[in-house]
Design a protein that fits this description.
alpha+beta; 2 domains; 3 helices
């Protein structure tokens, strides 16, 4: 378990993968898929092609399993926290495994790389090491995130030292 960062937090972001379908929407979609497959299966069963009914049920099960895997993957997230003495990136995968990366905020720099196909990659660079962050964001959101983090780093670096 990681020790909490010393206050004050100068920047704190939680990045989660985007999922456009809510649980209620999922229930509606799976209900429609089940109703269509049940109806089609009954039509085929009444015409004597009874094995098709089983395949229709299998299709509903596979669609449900695919959505379940998608929602499980959505549990992954990333946090980026900045204090006076540390920039910490904490990643939690879909299974709950945690990896943390720490940078000294006065030495770290941001590298936003734009590809020819309009995608972007944001890296934290320090002492010859690079770490990609905010990969779950869209290119536009990633640029906004980079601007906000750069502003927080700049404010930290230019802030007057506290009296001793």
């Amino acid at each position: 378990m990681l020790a909490p960062l010393e206050p004050p937090l100068r920047f704190n972001a939680l990045i989660t993968p985007h999922r456009s379908l809510s649980m209620r929407g999922f229930a509606v979609v799976i209900g429609i898929v089940a109703a269509v497959n049940f109806t089609a299966g009954m039509v085929f069963m009444l015409k004597g092609a009874w094995p098709v009914f089983g395949f229709c049920g299998l299709e509903v099960l596979l669609v449900w399993l695919a959505f379940r895997a998608n929602y499980r993957a959505a549990r992954a997230h990333e946090t980026v926290e900045l204090t006076d003495g540390e920039l910490r990136v904490r990643r939690v995968d879909a299974k709950g495994n945690v990896r943390a990366f720490s940078f000294q905020p006065y030495w770290v720099r941001l590298a936003l790389r734009k590809e020819p196909d309009e995608t972007t990659h944001l890296h934290l660079v320090s002492h010859g090491k690079e770490l990609e962050v905010a990969a779950a964001l869209s290119p536009h959101e990633r640029e906004d995130f980079a601007r906000a983090l750069q502003a927080a780093l700049t404010n930290l670096r230019t802030a007057p030292l506290p009296p001793q």
